[in-house]
Design a protein that fits this description.
By secondary structure, the chain is α+β, with helices and mostly antiparallel strands. It has six helices and seven strands; from the N terminus they run ααββαβαββαββα. The strands form two sheets. It has a five-stranded antiparallel sheet, with helices on both faces. Helix 1 packs parallel to helix 5 and helix 2 runs antiparallel to helix 5. The protein is elongated, with a radius of gyration of 25 Å. 25% of the residues are buried.
């Protein structure tokens, strides 16, 4: 068992740091790694991992104290006990102490935060790990929303770029921020300096 670090007495500081990461980072894996690292240190775990529910299987998305080969090869089955599968894949004894905390996003089980430690967790530690699982759920929801926005923007740009109609977008300073391919083709001036032009300076095709 590892000795507690100096930050282990201040779990609220860890939760606040993760909150900041969730609100400032769009990298879902980066946030999950932060959650796993903090859960691992917070309760002095022997191992910690995040399992995500896929369409047909469970995968390890982030982990600490786990062999990289296990992370890569683990393909959990939905119909089998998760702890039994992890014990088998990780080479743990049958009585190894594994505790899971559900990651629930939008009322749906999306994964599990799993820790293993020789000693049982006390009530405060369980609450802290449950809070970290909630943070993972928020990060997952944010990542999905961001992916949806990116996909929507990609489809919109594809539609605009292939449309014969003229489409432009101006900033608050009336500078041209975007112009469709049809607009650029119709302009008498080239499109190379479009970011510097204002609406008053753009010459529209006659």
């Amino acid at each position: 068992m590892r000795k507690p670090g100096p930050d282990s007495i201040n779990p609220s500081r860890r939760l606040a740091a993760i909150n900041r990461a969730i609100t400032t980072s769009l990298n879902f894996d980066e946030v999950l790694d932060l959650i796993v690292d903090n859960a691992y240190e917070l309760v002095n775990a022997d191992l910690c991992l995040v399992l995500l529910v896929g369409q047909e299987q469970l995968t390890i998305r982030a982990a600490k104290g786990v062999d990289p080969g296990v992370i890569r090869d683990f393909k959990g089955r939905m119909e089998e006990d998760v702890h039994v599968q992890l014990q088998r894949s990780l080479g743990l004894e049958a009585d190894a102490h594994l505790i899971s905390f559900p990651i629930i996003a939008q009322h749906v089980l999306n994964g599990l935060l799993v820790v293993s430690r020789a000693q049982p967790l006390d009530e405060d530690e369980r609450w802290q790990l449950s809070a970290l699982a909630d943070q993972a759920a928020i990060a997952l929801t944010n990542a999905r929303l961001y992916a949806e926005v990116e996909e929507s923007e990609r489809r919109y740009r594809h539609l605009v770029d292939n449309s014969p109609d003229i489409v432009t977008r101006y900033g608050p300073d009336l500078r041209v921020r975007f112009m469709s391919a049809a607009f650029e083709r119709g302009l008498r001036a080239g499109g190379a300096d479009r970011a510097a032009r204002t609406g008053a300076r753009v010459r529209y095709p006659m």
